[in-house]
Write a structure and sequence with these properties.
By secondary structure, this protein is of the alpha/beta class. It has helices at residues 19-31, 45-56, 91-101, 114-117, 122-130, 165-175, 193-200, 231-243, 262-269, 314-322, 343-353, 384-395, 416-422; strands at 2-3, 10-14, 32-39, 60-64, 67-73, 85-86, 107-111, 134-137, 146-149, 157-159, 182-185, 204-208, 211-215, 220-221, 225-226, 248-255, 273-282, 285-293, 301-302, 327-330, 357-361, 364-368, 377-379, 401-404. The longest helix is centred in the first third of the chain and has 13 residues, at 19-31. The structure holds shikimate-3-phosphate (S3P) and phosphoenolpyruvate. One of its GO terms (cellular component) is cytoplasm.
Amino acid sequence: MIIHPVKSIQGEINVPGDKSISHRAIMLGALSKGITNIKGFLMGEDCLSTIRCFRDMGIDIEINDSLVTVNGRGLHGLKKPENELYVGNSGTTLRLMSGILAPQDFDCIITGDDSIKSRPMKRIIDPLTKMGANIVSIESNNKAPLKIIGSKLHNITHNSFVASAQVKSCIILASLYTENDTKIIEPVLSRNHTEIMLNYFGGNITTEGSTITSTPVKELYAKDINIPGDISSAAFFMVACLITKNSQLVIKNVGINPTRDGIITVLKAMNGDISLLNEREINGELVADIKVKSSKLSGTVIDKDIIPALIDEIPVIAVAACFAEGKTIIKDAQELKVKESNRIETMVTELSKMGADIIGTDDGMIISHSPNLRGATVKSYNDHRVAMSLAIAGLVAEGKTDINESECIDISFPGFYNSLQNISDL
Ligand SMILES: O=C(O)C1=C[C@@H](OP(=O)(O)O)[C@@H](O)[C@H](O)C1
Ligand SMILES: C=C(OP(=O)(O)O)C(=O)O
């Protein structure tokens, strides 16, 4: 992908559907009795991987333009897949599905691409094993491929060492197949889309602080779902607009769930001119239009409790930080090292090539005011968020930015380049 500097960002856009909610809509639709119609589903590769896996387990899922219809077969309706389940690049698919597979009455193998095979799975193997699951890491390295031998599960109380919605959701989904309450205690409450959607489908999940209690129910019931735009995708345009002169943008219909809205809090703390319009609730999720204007940013400290609410946005926050007076310090974000790439290493390496003053630390980055970025040949390490963050930097760099391995953007944001063209002179 080639990016040239733009004069300004203007207009109104929609971003594709929320990735986390799209995965969950397929999974819970499949496990419910009846038909779930999904509007606003993200047709990105990760979510299509979730569809493929459920089709492989006998779930009839139709895609008609932008409408996805899941013919749910209830909690006990999945069939043994004929082949290995392949999740592609999607950590969410692998970790959430493991919770669904562990209590089935069949065995299967679940695997994915090279990036997936390098990501840690002990964090789900341990609690699932404590629940009575039989999971074998085939290479004995606590990573995928995993062989999951369906077993009878029981409830647990799990103190999670990491605020991870994938770990939490994996355990909640497994707990649907137990008899008593399961409790999960998180260090900080992570994104709660699973809890919201399960309750919407007739489940029984309660949350007090960062303790989640799942009370098993006999059956889930299908319901139609409207998925809002993904705040993680909107983040790229929010930053693009803030750092480009004479710009103003409205991003319509974006999910602003408080467990996801850290990007808004942080960009406002950096002096970003951001306002929320038309706030409303759809299927239990908060939604708004986000209005952004070019701003003179200042540095900030991002740490502790807010990290889970903006974990996927840190690569693009690093770009914003180059344009902020003073220093921006990002701490307590070790989780960045175990995403699609080591996002501390990859962002530091590639943004440095463009002239950013950025230093990697063990748990984050320190970025100093370095607004004179220059175009360069950079690469994404096949990490969609890295590719898109570098593209945003390219919009305000001098000269041409050539991003290698940019196809991975389709994982979460098909049409990203066209959207940029729609709001600028790119
Ligand atoms: O549950 C989810 O949908 C996700 C949770 C987060 O991962 P962790 O649970 O590993 O923090 C996030 O980074 C990922 O993009 C999506
Ligand atoms: C980390 C991400 O996704 P996943 O864990 O599902 O691969 C992401 O989309 O940034």
